[in-house]
Amino acid sequence: MKTSVPISSLLHHKGSTVFSVAPESTVFDAIKLMAEKNIGALLVIARGTLVGVFTERDYARKIALHGKSSKETLVKEILSRNVVTASPSDSIEECMRMMTENRVRHLPVMRNEEVVGIVSIGDLVNYIISAQDATIAQMEQYIAGGVTA
Question: Are 42 and 21 in contact (CB under 8 A)?
């Protein structure tokens, strides 16, 4: 389904709450926050600037598989620094393409240098499903004679 709806529209409905940690936080504290908030990624922010993203994937691949201690390792040692970001005006379709091409599941949304939100692949899929459900309902109503052309 093609959509030119800007990601800012999804953020308006979802909310723009962003959870973050400092680079000096321990991996344990980051994982604990992610578990408390039931999220899969945290933005890593230093002095008001986005410096990276810390994800469950980072934990699994860089801590668990390497036998490191999450209580002793700092987030800055394992975070993903090459962050792919979106602009509020980017379409949902463009964001899905960016996430797919870059193999990321979380996309910070930036206005200039300011973080204004974050979306996950799940957020985008849920939006598309809702939009398809609405379209199907309108078509059913039209076919049933409830809507005039």
Answer: yes
Q: Please check whether residue 23 is in contact with residue 79, taking contact to mean a CB–CB distance below 8 angstroms.
A: yes
Q: Where are the alpha helices (DSSP H) in 51-108?
A: 56-59, 75-78, 92-102
The whole-angstrom separation of Cα 88 and Cα 36 is 27
Model confidence pLDDT, tens digit, residues 4-48: 789 998 898 888 789 999 999 999 999 999 999 999 999 999 999
In a domain, 149, yes or no: no
**What CATH number is given to the structural domain containing 82?**
3.10.580.10
User: pTM for the whole thing?
Assistant: 0.82
Instruction: Find the farthest-apart pair of alpha carbons in the chain and give their distance in angstroms, rounded.
Output: 66
Domain span at residue 125 reads: 7-143
Question: Is the Cβ–Cβ distance between 78 and 23 less than 8 Å?
Answer: no
Closest to 118 (Cα-Cα) out of 58, 65, 40, 1: 40
What is the token pair recorded at 51? Answer: 């410096």
